[in-house]
Amino acid sequence: MTQDRQKFEKIISLCKRRGFVFPSSEIYGGFAAVYDYGPYGVELSNNIKSAWWKEMVQYREDIVGLDSAIFMHPKIWEASGHVKGFSDPLTECRKCNQRFRVDTLLDDAGVFADEKMSEDEINKIFDDNKEKIACPNCSAKDFARAEKFNLLVQSNLGNLTQDWTKDPTYLRGETCQGIYVNYKNVLNSSRVKIPFGIAQIGKAFRNEITARQFIFRTREFEQMEMQYFVHPSEEMDHYEKWRERRWKFYLDIGLKEENLKWHKHENLVFYAKEAYDIEYNFPFGFKELEGVHARGNYDLTQHSKFSKVELDYLDPVSGEKYIPHIVETSAGVARTFLAIISDAYTEEENEGEIRVVLKLPFKLSPIKVAVFPLLKNKPELVEKAKAIFDDLKLSLMCEFDDNGNVGKRYRRQDEIGTPFCVTIDFETLENDTVTIRDRDSMKQERIAIKELSNHLQQRVS
Ligand code: ATP
Fold first, then answer.
1. Bigger pLDDT: 147 or 371?
2. Domain identity same for 76 and 103
3. Shared domain check, 94 and 71
4. Are 119 and 226 in a shared domain?
5. Average pLDDT for residues 381-399, to the nearest whole number?
6. What distance in angstroms lies between residue 332's CA and the mean position of ligand 1's atoms?
């Protein structure tokens, strides 16, 4: 096993052991490419979403939020092109019958291929490079012809007379379609004027072909998307600004810059002006974290055509009427989660032992402060610790822990990335001071209880 794979396996194991991520339906043998978020996972995930929402909605006067439904009119997916064109090229290993995405197999072999190529184009490249590509599962070099496989997930939602096999309702394949079809509602009900954005965080569903990539590629996942509506002549200016802002966002939430890079799309869909992905150096290599795309007016034009509703914008000052162009920023919660944990995962030597610590940025840590009574069988210590916990929990996500000895409690908090541990000992009972232990330096300092809350809030923020 390579070192990177080893690190990845350790991260997956820590995520399960410490309650970040569980395989779905585990007691029934699991359910492929679906995961559940445990007690610390849901906190980290919420903190990522909150950082994104602050940056994209709260701190901006020109962007508003939206929460559109997962079920939408089936015509939307025809208009968007998903019913016909939302597919990946799939192949099957003839020896072990495992299925793979051909573009990913080619990519891993260092051959460029794009998921948007036609079936014939991709089969030609696949044939030409046959010798280079072995099955990641059984190493055989015998694959079936690649076929396009539609990624939309169908449901049987509908009334009893509807034949849903002919006329299916889909679980949405991306959140942004909910934004496009609500563009007029937002325009008419809020005070936005072009240029403006609509932001949304929500679930999306895709029939993905996956290959042991943990939460990187799942069939149910969350997206954080923002569509920015602009005048056609200003599209590329806004696009460049959004590229800069989105790059900075990842630095602000603590990712190391050397683990980020830009990837320019060479094979653009016909309507797009330019598209870049921000890639992160995951333990399995640089892969997409977020897409920033200049999409022209394709989305609104298509929805206007299919719905027969005018989706023009009337400039209140110049009187000009036009269909806005769109700059899209589209990120995944789980991929950001995995990037953050991969960046933070650290093993260091400490007194002859290996200490595992998640050096998460404080604002993303699931638990900010852990409160310990030194001994659990001393009621006066427990009572005092509970009182401190009850006070701190009003402003910070805290955890009370009296299990095992203090060393063991530190190890557990290090592994879930808690920046500070507060211990209540016998000296506390004499002079109302406690010790604070810092996760990264492991240094301890004594501080008066009356200063504790302020001190911790300042350091966490
Ligand atoms: P990929 O090429 O990796 O399949 P994509 O280009 O299809 O991704 P988009 O449709 O642009 O992805 O979706 C925007 C973002 O949503 C991606 O950058 C990613 O962070 C996230 N995302 C997409 N598909 C998945 C998935 N199956 N599981 C988890 N996150 C996903």
1. 371
2. no
3. no
4. no
5. 97
6. 6
Residues 281 and 136 in one domain: no
- Structure-block tokens of residue 98: 């495992």
Domain annotation covers residue 355: no
Which phi and psi angles does 77 have, rounded to 5°? -80, -20
171: domain CATH number is 3.30.930.10
Q: What distance in angstroms lies between residue 290's CA and the mean position of ligand 1's atoms? A: 8
Residue 351, domain member (yes or no): no
Return all residues near 247 (Cβ < 8 A) that are at least 6 apart.
260, 262, 278
- The model's pTM is 0.93
Q: Provide the β-strand partners of residue 290.
A: 278, 331
pLDDT tens digit string along 60-89? 999 999 999 999 999 999 999 999 888 888
65 and 210 co-located in one domain: yes
Q: How far is CA 8 from CA 123, 268, 285, in A?
A: 32, 32, 11
CA neighbor of 357 nearest in space, from 405, 297, 403, 417? 417
Ligand 1 atom index nearest CA of 330: 14
Q: Rounded to whole angstroms, how far apart are CA atoms 438 and 364?
A: 16
For residue range 329-377, what is the model confidence (pLDDT) as tens digits?
A: 999 999 999 999 999 999 999 889 999 999 999 999 999 999 999 999 9
Report how far residue 428's alpha carbon sits from residue 459's, in angstroms, rounded to the nearest whole number. Answer: 22
Does the residue 19 lie in any domain? yes
395: domain range? 367-460
Q: What is the mean pLDDT of the chain?
A: 94
- How far does residue 21's CA lie from ligand 1's centre (Å)? 19
Q: Is the pLDDT of residue 5 over 70?
A: yes
Q: Is 362 in the pocket of ligand 1 (CB under 6 A)?
A: no
| 347, part of any domain | no
Same domain as 252, residue 122: no
d(Cα 150, Cα 208) in Å, to the nearest integer? 9
Q: Say whether 346 counts as a known binding-site residue.
A: no
Q: Which of residues 104, 120, 150 is at a domain's end?
A: 150
Determine the distance from the C-alpha atom of residue 371 to the mean position of all C-alpha atoms in its chain, rounded to a whole number.
30
- What is the number of alpha carbons within 13 Å of residue 72 lying toward its C-beta? 27
Same domain, 110 and 62: no
Per the structure, the count of domains in the chain is 3
Residues 399 and 417 in one domain: yes
Which of 330, 336, 337 best tests ligand 1's pocket when mutated (most atoms within 8 Å of CB)?
330
- pLDDT tens readout for residues 251-307: 999 999 999 999 999 888 888 899 999 999 999 999 999 999 999 999 999 999 999
